[in-house]
């Protein structure tokens, strides 16, 4: 009896140990690998169709139809409100400041006189130039009337001389015929010849008088016209000098600074006042890689506190300065923040172009990134290249447009596991477990 008792004790120890092993390592057991996928491959002859629900279980998953597109994200840059135009206005002539017609902060209109210079001497010059012009015009008018009056008389005298000459020639020709047949004496023929010569002389004198009158028109009158034109130029210059004594606003805006005081002598080219446009803009900078998308007319938003203002791009510098590209945008509404206000310019930026998927669909195994799709009721592993991520989405390559991607793969999901998007159709087989440890295909 003692002999059997001695043999039973070791036997019980062995049985208890084996039972403990079976409890800790049941057949087809799985190990949770929550949140990550390890490396490795299944042993030779092993199957990859078992999911997280145990051997042969159909796993309920969530899936989404994916499509190609461009993934964008909202970015922001600091912007500052500034005037669309600013000009430091200088005097165009020298003189003593006689009047200042606006103060800093005043709104003015284009062409409005802001600074006036003493123009007494300039006004006198205008009067003198006007008198000179009037005199030149009178001389031109008088001489023109004289030339035109003489032209009519001379033309009439020339016509008479031409008629007399032709008549004398006709008479002389007739007398020659009469003389040839003895009809008149030689003295009568000589008299007719003398009349022809006298008529020719008169005609020549009349023609010379007409030519001299024409020369007067082409010479004297031309000089008088040039004198009038010169006087007009002198008057215009004198009037421009008077105009230059007024320093005016080049555009509608607000006076931001006045550089002179009343009675001060202001040299030509010296700053008189500074004017900023009433139209406002926002300036900001973006990285060079993003700047090419900011074409003229593109709309962005300017956020100041709780207020949002729509903007349109008006200028793109193109060339980076200090690493960024400067941009300018104008306000699209009448209500605008004060000059110098800083805010945030909000805009969309392209992350990448490819297949858009939920970020939660991405799985990683060391340096390899992959996703699962559903094909014929089975999970299908696809290695992908991540182009970019933004928010809850990612853009990838390596997967077909229109596929059903598992948006949130269960921990340890295997390639080829039976899956369903109908939670009620999932079949639990035994107690829930996890996939084998290791990579997407499992590992021993």
From TrEMBL:
Region (Disordered): 32-53, 425-444
UniProt keyword annotations, A-Z: Coiled coil
Biased composition range(s): Pro residues: 433-444
Ranges in a coiled coil: 221-248
Residue ranges of every copy of the YknX-like C-terminal permuted SH3-like domain listed in the record: 356-420
Ranges where the Multidrug resistance protein MdtA-like barrel-sandwich hybrid domain occurs: 86-276
Signal peptide limits: none
GO molecular function: efflux transmembrane transporter activity
Protein known as: Secretion protein HlyD
């Amino acid at each position: 009896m003692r002999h059997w008792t001695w043999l039973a004790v070791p036997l019980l120890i062995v049985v208890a140990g084996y039972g403990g092993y079976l409890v800790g390592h049941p057949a087809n057991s799985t190990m949770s690998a929550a949140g990550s996928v390890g490396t490795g491959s299944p042993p030779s002859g092993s199957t990859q169709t078992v999911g997280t629900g145990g051997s042969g279980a159909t796993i309920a998953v969530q899936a989404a139809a994916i499509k190609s597109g461009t993934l964008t994200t909202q970015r922001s840059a600091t912007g500052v409100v500034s005037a669309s135009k600013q000009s430091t206005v200088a005097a165009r002539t020298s003189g003593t400041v006689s009047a200042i017609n606006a103060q800093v902060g005043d709104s003015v209109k284009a062409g409005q006189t802001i600074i006036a210079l003493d123009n007494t001497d300039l006004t006198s010059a205008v009067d003198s130039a006007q008198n000179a012009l009037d005199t030149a015009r009178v001389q031109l008018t008088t001489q023109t009337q004289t030339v035109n009056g003489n032209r009519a008389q001379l033309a009439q005298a020339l016509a008479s001389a031409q008629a007399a000459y032709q008549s004398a020639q006709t008479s002389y020709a007739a007398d020659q015929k009469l003389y040839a047949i003895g009809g008149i004496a030689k003295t009568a023929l000589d008299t007719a010849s003398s009349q022809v010569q006298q008529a020719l002389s008169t005609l020549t004198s009349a023609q010379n008088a007409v030519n001299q009158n024409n020369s007067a028109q082409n010479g004297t009158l031309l000089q008088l016209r040039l004198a009038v034109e010169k006087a007009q130029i002198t008057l215009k210059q004198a009037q421009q000098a008077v105009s230059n004594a007024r320093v005016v606003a080049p555009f509608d805006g607000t006076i931001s600074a006045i550089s002179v005081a009343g009675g001060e002598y202001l040299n030509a080219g010296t700053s008189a006042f500074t004017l900023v446009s009433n139209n406002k803009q926002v300036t900001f900078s973006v990285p060079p890689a993003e700047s090419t998308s900011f074409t003229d007319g593109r709309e962005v938003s300017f956020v100041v506190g709780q207020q949002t203002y729509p903007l349109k791009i008006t200028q793109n510098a193109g060339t980076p300065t200090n690493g960024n590209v400067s941009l300018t945008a104008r306000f699209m509404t009448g209500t605008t923040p004060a000059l110098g206000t800083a805010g945030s310019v909000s805009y969309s930026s392209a992350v990448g172009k490819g297949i858009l998927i939920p970020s939660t669909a991405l799985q990683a195994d060391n340096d390899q990134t992959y996703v699962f799709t559903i094909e014929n009721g089975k999970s299908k592993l696809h290695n992908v290249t991540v182009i970019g991520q933004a928010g809850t989405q990612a853009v990838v390559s390596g997967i077909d447009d229109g596929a059903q991607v598992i948006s949130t793969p269960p921990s340890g999901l295997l390639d080829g596991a039976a899956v369903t998007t109908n939670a009620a159709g999932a079949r639990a087989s035994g107690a829930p477990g996890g996939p084998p440890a290791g990579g997407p295909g499992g590992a021993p």
